[in-house]
Amino acid sequence: MEESIKGVLVEAAMTRQRKETVERAVGRAVRRKGMDYSMYIAAMSELRDLATSMSLGVEEALESLQKEQKG
């Protein structure tokens, strides 16, 4: 996974608010980093691919990235 995409996803996981969708959190992280819509699409695509490979939902895959970053 590209470092810029991973950075966006980790930031989204750390700043995600209660009951907020993953898509919205990722979109906010992309905007905060000054990136464009194509980066949002790339990040969501990578997250969905990761979730599929781990047999998890996107929420759980995002949480696993956050735990990986902390650990």
Task: List strands and helices in order, with pairings.
Blueprint (H helix, E strand, L loop, with lengths): L2 H13 L6 H11 L4 H17 L4 H13 L1
Features:
71 residues, mainly alpha, globular
Written account of the structure:
The relative contact order is 0.19. The chain starts with a helix and ends with a helix. The protein is built from 4 helices and no strands. It has 71 residues and is an all-alpha fold. Helix 1 crosses helix 2, helix 1 (3-15) packs across helix 3 (37-53) and helix 3 (37-53) crosses helix 4 (58-70).
Number of helical segments with 4 or more residues: 4
Give the C-alpha Rg: 11 Å
Give the beta-strand count: 0
Order of helices and strands: HHHH
Overall, the morphology is globular
Mean pLDDT: 94
Q: What structural class is derived from the secondary structure elements?
A: mainly alpha
Largest sheet: none
- Please report the distance between the alpha carbons of the first and last residues: 18 Å
Q: Hey, roughly how much beta strand do the residues contain?
A: under 5%
Helical proportion, percent range: over 70%
Low-confidence stretches: none
Quick take:
Helix content is 76%, strand content 0%.
